[in-house]
Amino acid sequence: MTVAPSITSRASLARPAARRSRVAPVELFFDLVYVFAAVQLAQILLGDLSCIGALQTLILFAAVWWGWNYTAWAMNWLDPLRTRVQLLSVVLMLAALGMAVAIPTAFDERVWLFVGCYLFMGILRPAVMMLAFAGRQLARNYRMLLLWTLFAGVFWILGAAAPDQWRIPLWLAAVVVDYAAPLARFRVPFVGSAPMHLWDADAEHLARRNRLVFVMALGQSILLMGGAVADRTPLDLPLVGSLSVGFASLFVLWWNYFALAGSGAEHGDTSTGALRTAFAYAHALMVLGAVLVAVSIELRLTHGTLTPAIVLVTTAGPLVYLAGNLMFLRSRFGRLARSRVIAAVVLVLITGAAVALREAVPVAALSLAVLSVTTTLAVFTAVQRRSAAHAGRAT
Predict the structure, then answer these.
(1) Which residue has the higher pLDDT, 322 or 242?
(2) Which of 8, 165, 370, 382 sits most deeply, having the most CB atoms within 10 A of its CB?
(3) What is the phi/psi pair of residue 110, to 5°?
(4) Nearest-angstrom CA–CA distance, 279 and 285
C-alpha cells in the first residue's frame, strides 16, 4: 500500500534558508540559452529594420524575457541542489532552446514550435510549484498564476492559428495579459488573487540573477560585434576605430549598470512589489536596451552612411535602457533620477539632429555623440555612488 506524501515531503524541494540567496551552477547553465536567444532576437531586427520588424522583435523579446523571468522567480524558492529541481531546469532550458531556435521564423513556419515551447514552460513551472508546495500559500499563488497563463495562452494559440495579418495583434494581446497579471494581483473573479505581499521573495537572489542575465545580454553584443568584424578585410583604421567605439559603448553600458544596480540588494525597498517592478519590468527594459545597443553596433560597423532606421536604433538602445533605470530607481528608492532624464533628453535631441542631417553626419560622429552622453552619465553615477558610500561611512 502506498502512502500519500506529507506536506513536508512534498515541500522537500524548497530552498534552505542557509543558501537562499546563492545562484547555483544549474541556474547559470539555464541562463546560457538566453545568450543564443538574444543573438536570434538581434538578427530578427537586423533583417527587418521596419516598424513591423521592430514590433515582431518586441513581441518575441517579451515572451523570451517572461519565460526567463518566471523561471528565475521559481528558482527563488526551489533548492537547486536537488536532483528533481536540476532536471526541471534542464527541461525548461530545452523548451527555452526550442523558443530560441524558432525565433527567426516564429511568425511563419515555426510558429507552433515557439508558442508550444513558451506555453509548455508557462504551464510546467506553476504545476511543479503547486505540487512541491502543496498546502502552502506559494501553491495557491501559483494556482492563480497558472490561470492567468492559460488565459494568455488562448491569445497565443489563436495568434498561431490565425491568418498572418492577425498574428501580431493577437500576440500583443497575449503579451499584455502576461505582463498585466502581477499588476492585477493575479486576481480571478470568484476564485481569488495572489497579491505581491504573499510572495516571500529573496531580494539578493533576484538581484544576482538579473545582474548575471544583463551581463549575458552584453555577451551577445560581443558575439555580434566580433562576427561583424571577423570576416571583414582589410582590417583598416576606420574599421578598428568603429570596433573600438563599439567596445567602448558596451563597456560604458556595463559600467553604468553596475554603478547603479550592481550593489547589494539589501539597500532600498525590498518588498515583493518593489522587487517585481525592479526585476521583472525594469530589467526587461535594461536587457532590451542592451540588445538594441548590440544591433546598433553591428549596423554602424556594416554601414557607411546613416539612415533614419540606423539613427533610431542607435539612440533607442540607451533610451530604453535609461527607461529601465528610471523604473528601477523609482521602485527601489522612490525617487526620480534627474541625471537619467537629462541624458534621455539629450539623446532625443541627438536623434532629431542626426535624422535631419543624416546625409551630412558621419556614422562615427553619431557613435561618438551617443558614447559621450552615456560615458558622462556613467562617470556621474559612479562618483555619486562613491560620495553616498563615503557619507554613509561617515555617519
Answers:
(1) 322
(2) 370
(3) -105, 25
(4) 10
Give me the phi and psi of 266, to 5 degrees please: -70, -15
206 falls in which pLDDT band (50, 70, 90)?
very high
Task: Please state the rounded mean pLDDT for residues 302-325.
Answer: 93
In angstroms, how far apart are the furthest CA atoms of the chain? 83
Cell numbers representing residue 269 in the block = 525597498
What amino acid occupies position 127? A
CA–CA gap between residue 306 and residue 365 (Å, rounded) = 10
* Grid coordinates of 216: 549575458
Q: Backbone dihedral region of 268: left (phi > 0), alpha (psi from -120 to 50 degrees) or beta?
A: left
**What residues does 78 pair with on adjacent strands?**
14
State the Cα–Cα distance between residues 70 and 29, nearest whole angstrom.
16
Three cell numbers written together for 28 = 547559470
Q: Return the SS3 of 231.
A: coil
Look at residue 56 and give its three-state secondary structure: helix
Listed in sequence order, the residues at least 6 apart from 353 whose beta carbon sits closer than 8 Å to its beta carbon are 361
C-alpha cell at 339: 541625471
- Position 4 confidence tier, pLDDT thresholds 50, 70, 90: very low
Per-residue CA distances from 341 to 286, 311, 313, 320 (Å)? 15, 20, 19, 12
How far apart are the C-alpha atoms of 1 and 195, rounded to whole Å? 40
Residues 6+ apart with CB under 8 A from 395: none
For residue 102, give the C-alpha cell: 524558432
How far apart are the C-alpha atoms of 176 and 62, rounded to whole Å?
A: 10
Cα(219)–Cα(382) distance, integer angstroms: 22
